[in-house]
Structures are given as structure tokens and as C-alpha cells.
Amino acid sequence: MSAEQKAKAKAEQTSSAVKKTAGKTVGNESLRAEGEAEQAKGDARATKEKAKDTLRP
Q1: Shortest CA distance to 40 belongs to which of 11, 5, 16?
Q2: How far apart are CA 46 and CA 52, in angstroms?
Q3: Percent helix, strand and coil across the chain, each rounded to 5?
Q4: How many CA atoms lie within 13 A of 36 on its CB side?
Q5: Would you say residue 2 has pLDDT above 80?
Q6: In this structure, are residues 16 and 35 in contact, taking their beta carbons and an 8 Å threshold?
Q7: Among residues 9, 24, 44, 57, which one has the fewest Cβ atoms lying within 10 Å of its Cβ?
Q8: How far apart are CA 54 and CA 56, in angstroms?
Q9: What is the pLDDT of residues 27-57, one digit of tens each?
């Protein structure tokens, strides 16, 4: 996984966890949903990069 893409995936996953937790804590459903969507995006980016690494000789 390229370092830049790996960093982006981790940043998305981390910020999404914060948003999701904050949304749950204050009862803000839209913030929680936004956090979940960003987490899915970060997970997808990480999976894509791992697949690239697996396919490289």
C-alpha cells in the first residue's frame, strides 16, 4: 500500500470514528450517519490498496 493512500485511509477511518462517536453522544443522527459513511469510504480505500499490494509481483 502506498504510504500516501494508507495515510488517507487511516485519516478517514479515524475522523469517521470521532464523528460517529460524537453523533451518538449528543444524539445527532446526521453526524453519526456522516461518520459511518466516511468509515465505509476509508475501509474501501484500505481494501483497494491492500488488493493492489496483493496483485503486485
Answers
A1: 16
A2: 10
A3: 90, 0, 10
A4: 8
A5: no
A6: yes
A7: 57
A8: 6
A9: 999 999 999 998 898 888 888 888 888 887 6
The one-letter code for the residue type at 15 is: S
The overall pTM is greater than 0.85: no
Cell numbers for 14, please give them: 479515524
Rounded Cα gap, residues 41 and 11, in angstroms: 11
Contacts 24+ apart (CB under 8 A), 14-23: 16/41, 16/42
**Selection from 51, 48, 46 nearest residue 12 by Cα:** 46
Distance CA 34, CA 48 (A): 21
Which residue reads 459513511 in cell numbers?
A: 37
Instruction: Decide which of 27 and 4 is more confident.
Output: 27
